[in-house]
Amino acid sequence: xxxxxxxxxxxxxxxxxxxxxxxxxxxxxxxxxxxxxxxxxxxxxxxxxxxxxxxxxxxxxxxxxxxxxxxxxxxxxxxxxxxxxxxxxxxxxxxxxxxxxxxxxxxxxxxxxxxxxxxxxxxxxxxxxxxxxxxxxxxxxxxxxxxxxxxxxxxxxxxxxxxxxxxxxxxxxxxxxxxxxxxxx
Length: 185
Known about the structure:
This protein is α+β, with helices and mostly antiparallel strands. The chain has a single domain (3-123, 166-184), classed as Protein N-terminal glutamine amidohydrolase, alpha beta roll (C8orf32 fold). It contains five helices and eight strands, in the order H-E-E-E-E-E-E-H-E-H-H-E-H. Strands 6-5-4-1-7-8 form a six-stranded antiparallel β-sheet. A two-stranded antiparallel sheet has the order 2-3. A hairpin with a 2-residue loop joins strand 4 and strand 5. It is globular.
């Protein structure tokens, strides 16, 4: 699968991944959704399309996201990351992605926490009314995608629970080292 064959809309990573999950090729693979955030909801990422070049950092594309969502898939023994916002390859081998996207140079407050969610649960239970993208004047911070928002039929949104690292209902949490140990051994 090529990046250009995927539906993509900037600043809606959770919806991009929700749409990506629907691709038939992922039904045959062992897949998980990886939600990345931290307690302050201000996590530093490198190698991101929306990022900037910054002196003193090892690579381009520095940005802070309140959260970010990617897809992980095991294919022929390799764990791959599908991130439609990365400047790295699509997909990227997990170890390379983690090493190039996150840096020990960043203060602890900017370090990532990862949540793994099964693909089926994400597809069946994730819903968003896009209210997280509205400002106090009820205007969107960024234009909305051309497709309907993910909806389970109940309406509303559960995005806040998904990205809240104090809420373990959506799955176990990992720091960078424990995620590497769990997924890479």
